[in-house]
Design a protein that fits this description.
- The complex is a heterodimer of chains A (122) and B (110).
- With 122 residues, chain A is mostly beta strands.
- Helices cover 0% and strands 50% of the residues of chain A.
- In chain A, strands 2, 4, 5, 6, 9, 10 and 11 form a seven-stranded mixed sheet that branches. A four-stranded antiparallel sheet of chain A has the order 1-3-8-7, with no helix packed on it.
- In chain A, a hairpin with a 5-residue loop joins β4 and β5.
- Chain A is globular, with a radius of gyration of 13 Å.
- The termini of chain B are far apart.
- Chain B is 0% helix and 44% strand.
- Chain B is globular.
- With 110 residues, chain B is mainly beta.
- Chain B has no helices and nine strands.
- Classes of the chains: A mainly beta (122), B mainly beta (110).
Chain lengths: 122, 110
C-alpha cells in the first residue's frame, strides 16, 4: 500500500523559512517522480513543484520560483520542500504526491498524502 | 500559469449524468495528453479518477469517463450516485516541467 506522510508544517512568521518532508513507502520511490501541491483554506488545489526520479528535471510554479526548493533523497525514500521568504499567501495545506511515471513531464500525480499545514502569520 | 477554467458547480439527480468542463490553452490542455481529474471529499486528500485524458485507475468505477477536444477536457459521471457528491479538479501538464490545476467544480447530487 502506497503511503505518503508529510511533516514539518507549523506557524511561521513572514520572511522566515520552513522545510517540509514527505516519507514514502509501499512503492519503489526512486522509480517515481514526485510533486508538492498546496491548498489554501477553503480554496482550490495549486501545483507547487515537481521533481523527476533522479532529480534531473525540476519545475516550480511562478508563485514560488526563487523562494522554494524541491529535493529528494532516494536512499531515505524522502521528498523535501525548502520554503524561504515565506508570505501570508503561502498559508496552505501542503500535499506530497507520487507521479504515475519517472519523469516530471508525461505523467500525473496519483497517490497523495494527508498534508501538512503551513501557516504564515506574525 | 493561469488556472484552468471549470464551472463553479454542477448538479444532477441520482442516476443522471453530469459533465464537467476544463478549459485551458494550447500551452496546457490542448498541447499535451496529460490531463487528469481528481475527486476531493471535505477534509480528505484528492483521489485520482482519470489520467492521460481518459484512462481510469484500478478501482475507479466505469461511471467516470474523460475526454478532450482542443483546449477543453471533460469529465462525465454517468449514473450519478450520492457518494459522487464532492469537489472535482482537473490538472494538466503545462510544459517545462510544470503543471496547472483547474479552479474546481462542486458536484451536488439532488
Amino acid at each position: 500500500e502506497v503511503q505518503l506522510v508529510e511533516s514539518g508544517g507549523g506557524l511561521v512568521q513572514p520572511g522566515r523559512s520552513l522545510r517540509l518532508s514527505c516519507a514514502a513507502s509501499g512503492f519503489t520511490f526512486d522509480d517515481s517522480a514526485m510533486h508538492w501541491v498546496r491548498q489554501a483554506p477553503g480554496k482550490g488545489l495549486e501545483w507547487v513543484s515537481g521533481i523527476s526520479w533522479n532529480s534531473g528535471s525540476i519545475g516550480y510554479a511562478d508563485s514560488v520560483q526563487g523562494r522554494f526548493t524541491i529535493s529528494r533523497d532516494n536512499a531515505k525514500n524522502s521528498l523535501y520542500l525548502q520554503m524561504n521568504n515565506l508570505r501570508a499567501e503561502d498559508t496552505a495545506l501542503y500535499y506530497c504526491a507520487k507521479d504515475t511515471t519517472q519523469a516530471v513531464a508525461g505523467g500525473e500525480p496519483d497517490y497523495w498524502g494527508q498534508g501538512t499545514l503551513v501557516t504564515v502569520s506574525s | 500559469q493561469s488556472a484552468l477554467t471549470q464551472p463553479r458547480s454542477v448538479s444532477g439527480s441520482p442516476g443522471q449524468s453530469v459533465t464537467i468542463s476544463c478549459t485551458g490553452t494550447s500551452s496546457d490542455v490542448g498541447g499535451y495528453n496529460y490531463v487528469s481529474w481528481y475527486q476531493q471529499h471535505p477534509g480528505k486528500a484528492p483521489k485520482l479518477m482519470i489520467y492521460d485524458v481518459s484512462k481510469r485507475p484500478s478501482g475507479v468505477p466505469d461511471r467516470f469517463s474523460g475526454s478532450k477536444s482542443g483546449n477543453t477536457a471533460s469529465l462525465t459521471i454517468s449514473g450519478l450516485q450520492a457518494e459522487d457528491e464532492a469537489d472535482y479538479y482537473c490538472c494538466s501538464y503545462a510544459g517545462r516541467y510544470t503543471y496547472v490545476f483547474g479552479t474546481g467544480t462542486k458536484v451536488t447530487v439532488l
